[in-house]
Structures are given as C-alpha cells and as structure tokens.
Amino acid sequence: MTQEENKMGTLPVKKLIITMSLPMMASMLVQALYNVVDSIFVAQIDEAALTAVTLAFPMQNLMISLGAGTGVGMNALLSRSLGEKKFDRADEAANTTLLLTLINYLIFLIIGLFFVEPFIRTQTSDPLIISYGATYLRIVSCVSIGVFFQITFERMLQSTGRTFFSMVSQMTGAIINIIMDPILIFGMFGFPKMGVAGAAAATVLGQLVSSCVGLYCNLKKNHDIHLNLRLMFSPKAAVVKEIYFVGVPSILMMSIGSVMTYLMNLILIAFSTTATAVFGVYFKLQSFFFMPIFGLNNGLIPVLAYNLGARNKKRINEALKFSMVLAFTIMLIGCICFQIFPRPLLRLFNASEDMMKIGVPALRIISISFPIAGICITLGSVFQAFSESVYSLVISVVRQLIVLIPAAWLLSKTGNLDMVWIAFILSELASLALSNVFFKKVHAKKVKLLAE
Questions:
Q1: Which residue has the higher pLDDT, 243 or 407?
Q2: How many domains does the chain have?
Q3: How far apart are CA 286 and CA 302, in angstroms?
Q4: pLDDT tens per residue, range 40-88
Q5: Same structural domain, 2 and 79
Q6: Which domain holds residue 401?
C-alpha cells in the first residue's frame, strides 16, 4: 500500500480534503484571475470589444472541451495501465493522445481560417463587433496548438500523480498571459498597439509557454511514461477506441456549455449588445467562486473513490458532509459579494451607465443561485467518483439546455431583461431536484449497504 493510499484511508477527513483540494483550488483561482484580467483589459478598448470576446467564447469553450475530454479519456487508460503494470500500454495511451491532440488542433486551424467570421455573424450584424470577434477568434483558433498540447501535457502529469508540475505548467501560462495582455493590447515597452488582436496574442502566447513547460516536465520529471514520435505516429485503433469511450461523454458534457452560451448570446443580443457584454462579464466574475468549487470537487473525487474501494461508509459520508458545507459556504460568500458590490465589480470592466443599469440587477439576481449550485456540484462528484457519470451528463443537459435556455427565451418575451436572469435560478433548482434524486439512488446502491 502506498503512502498516498494510506493517507486516503487514515488521514482525518477534513484535513485530507483540504490538502487534496488546495493545490487545485489555487491553480483554478489563477485560471479564473487570468480570465477576468483578460476581459478587464479588453473592456478598456471599448464595449464592442468586450461583446466580441463574449461572442467568441462558445467556440473557445468548444476547443477546451475537445482537448480536455480527450485528456480525460487518456487519464483513465493511462492510470489504469500503470496500475496494472502494463507500461507499454501506458506509453501507447500517452503517445496516441499526442497524435489525437495534433488532429484536434488541425480541426480548429481549419475553423480559424475559414469559419470564424460566419460564426460571429450568426450572433450579431454589428460590423465593429464582427471585426473584433473574427480577429480575436481567428488568432486563438489558428494558434490553438498551444492550448491543446497544454491540456494534454497537464493531464499526463495528473495521470501519474505529478500534480505539482501540472500546477506549475498551468500557472506559468496564466501569469504570462496576464503580463502580456496590457503590453500587447496597448503597445507598451516598444511593442505595437494591437488592440483585440493583442488580447488574443497574449492568450495564445501563455498557452504556448505553458505547453512547453508541460512538455519539459513530462520529458524530465515524468518517468512513468516515455514520449516517442514513432509511437505517436503508429496509433492502434483499440487504444483510440478506449480513449474516446471515456472521452466522448466528457467532451459532450463540457460542450453543453458552448451551446448554452451561444444560445444565451442570441437571446440577450435581441435586447442589446450591452446585455450580451454583461453576460460575458458575469461569466468571468462567477469563475472566481465556481473554480474553487471545481478544485474542491477534484480533491473530493479520489477520496470518495478510495473509501468506496475500502468499504469505509463513515469516511464517505463525512467527506461528503464536510465538502457540501464548504461548497455552500464559498458560494454563499460569492452571492453576498455579488449582492453588495455589483457596481465596483462592473467598474473593473469600464462599465458605462447603461451597462450598470443592466449589470447590477443581473449580478444580484443570478447570484441567488450560487449556494444551490455549490451543493449540486458537490453531489456531482459522487457520480464521477462512483463511475455513474452518465447522471452528471443528464443533469448538465437538463440544467443548461432543457431548463435554462427555454426559460430564458420565454422570459425574454416579457420584454423585461431582468426577468431573463431568473432563468438561472430556475435551472439550478431543477438541477438540485434531479441531483438529489440521482444521489439517493447512487448512495443507496453503492454506500448504504456498506458496513459501518
């Protein structure tokens, strides 16, 4: 039994979850910071630039979904192969994923060259926003090789337990992006003033640096796998099939967010481009509170999975209860911040008075759903830890596509923009009800029958 396994089964549950989650929470907070800072600098150009980046987001999210979902499939096969001492199979998993990563990049290179402007045009007819959006999205798509390989190399490090190096890779890219944003957008220190193109250039530069750091860490620090060009270009169909058997559901689940944001953009832009910009600002700000919850979630999953294997009912229930309280508390703090400080938060994005008029009620209304969301995300960790992830997919579809979008569309017919934001509360309530039903089912099947 390894030291990690001993820790999973013996360390006090609260301390275990905190120590497991903190590095991932810190990493995700830096990621959230870089997302927010990116938009803050873009907003200094003008509101049209902020709206354009918001309209580009669904495509960016789709890119990340494809990369991360492929990484999840690799994770499962790679970790299992190492556990079974099948080291050749582990190398095949890692190297085949490199080829799949390259193919994913080539898909988005084609999209970047030929389809970004038509994509932006489906959401707006404003020529300035179209120009900004196409410029931004063309750069991040055509140079997406950085983000695809960054994700893959980070997943390799996570698969073999080297989460520290994964965190270093991710944080390096985020810090480079934050530093280069103002330099390239506004033309500082002798660099040309690039505007929206500068924001995109800073993003891809951070991703390229991060992918290089990830490659170095895998080559020099990750001795469990061996990257090899011959293996990379000699893929086995069975390995590809295994990777995507697990990866495709993850890709679909993450891609739902792209569909949701695209459809919300269409609903909101019917009111005004400012309403769409507010939605973009909200999306960036909420990540400060959602990202730590996802970090907590990532720390909780292995604790639950290990203690299910150890048939330790008491530690499973204790871990769940503590995580639920922690998630609820963090999201309650987020809700309070949005209730008390909506104006200072919006001022970060150079908000006009019109944007304030729309944004203040938007932040206050949507944030009511935060504590509910915290509970739902924690319950979702149970489905992932106990290999019942289909429930997570169903909940995600119901919350974002079956409830949120139809509710937002129907409420938009009132002509009152403030009513549209209520759809977020309704979708989280539906998610909570469904999560509770599935949790009771999974808990009864997997945990309830375990001996105390």
A1: 407
A2: 2
A3: 26
A4: 899 999 999 999 999 998 999 899 999 988 988 887 778 777 767 788 8
A5: no
A6: 1-22+271-452
